Amino acid sequence: MCCDESLYPYAPSKVAPIIFLVAFLLSTLHHIWLNVRYRSWRVTGTLPWGGIVFIAGFAVREVSAFYPKNLNLFIASAVLILVAPPVYALLNYIVLGRVLYYVPQLSPIHPGRVITTFCGLDVVVGILTGNGGARVANVNATPADINAGKGLLRASILLQLVAFFLFILLEYVFHRRCINAGTLDSKDTANATKNANRVRGVLYLMYISSVIISSRHVFRVVDVFQGNTGYLEQHEWPLYVFDGAFMFVNALMLNIWHPMKYLPNDNKIYLSRDGTTQRLGPGWEDSRPFLITLVDPFDIAGIFTKRDKDMFWDHEDEHPIVGQDTIGMDKAGEAASAA
User: Fold this and answer.
1) What is the C-alpha to C-alpha distance for residues 103 and 252, in angstroms, rounded to an integer?
2) For a FRET experiment, which of 29, 30, 243, 307 has its CA 20 to 30 Å from that of 282?
3) 55-58: long-range contacts at Cβ-Cβ below 8 A with a sequence spacing of 24 or more?
4) Which three-class secondary structure state does DSSP give residue 41?
5) 306 — phi, psi (to 5°)?
């Protein structure tokens, strides 16, 4: 420790928390404005949410740096900074689900189940992280409580890695289907080229974001298994690199390339097989009971039972065509379209 009574094993920086607080504040304010502009709170509302958690975490960290003996501040800053990154992971799940709604005929899973499956795992991760982090950070806890907290943190971090591996695998399978179907090929028409670029761009955006968040998860896995006496816990810079800088780069990237700039707000709008025409369908309907779709989101049972599936995109000629101005439409764009 930096001194006998400090809860930190080093002299905590009083400058770094302010830098990251301001950085996340600016990014979050811009994300709020983008959500208002694209009216995308249901899809990208987790971006301001994650930023606010980080702002709170670094604000408490700054106060804690001046009062390094205060246990409540120490625990609060540790837990807030721990639980913020999974909120950004939540965004990736929601955005990929929206991409699958846009190209439903190539989706390996009901798009809505991407959100419920992975978000459900994220909720479990958040609960485990919050409880585990609070126990480990509490220097007055008994050895049994500390060991239990470490176990919870290990379980949460490993669950995060497994969930993200499955998520990246799902994205890759969908990406390969798009390539094989020629959806991502540049076509003869300008609209088809735009649509291909939009889908490809969002997928690449999710790949990069997933790598950034997974790198942070790996850091946390090593940190938890090293324990309080490990290098990562004994030095402050890893926290600001992996939890701070990495996650800010992720947030900034989404400031610049906001996903809803490239996707329709209405999840009933989908891309026809020709890759050119956008149509307004009835939305994805699954005749199975809701609980069954949660347990078996890939409908593996349907594969074995050879259940007949009559999907709405098989009748695309019955659905009205919608214009390209439904993509990235803000209030000004809607007014211009209506005029």
Assistant:
1) 27
2) 307
3) 55/21, 55/24, 55/25, 55/28, 56/80, 57/81, 57/84, 58/17, 58/18, 58/20, 58/21, 58/24, 58/244
4) helix
5) 55, 45
SS3 271: strand
Between CA 242 and CA 104, with CA 169 as vertex, the angle to 5 degrees is 120
Neighbours of 301 (CB within 10 A): 12
Q: For 132-188, how does the pLDDT look when each residue is reduced to its tens digit (9 = 90+)?
A: 877 876 767 788 888 888 888 888 878 878 888 888 899 999 999 988 888 777 555
**CA pair distance 108, 177, nearest whole angstrom:** 9
> In the structure encoding, which two tokens stand for residue 90, read together?
């939540």
Q: How many residues belong to the chain?
A: 339
**Residue among 69, 217, 75, 240 nearest 154 (CA):** 217
Q: Are 85 and 68 contacting, i.e. CB atoms less than 8 angstroms apart? A: no
Q: Which two tokens stand for residue 283?
A: 């939305």
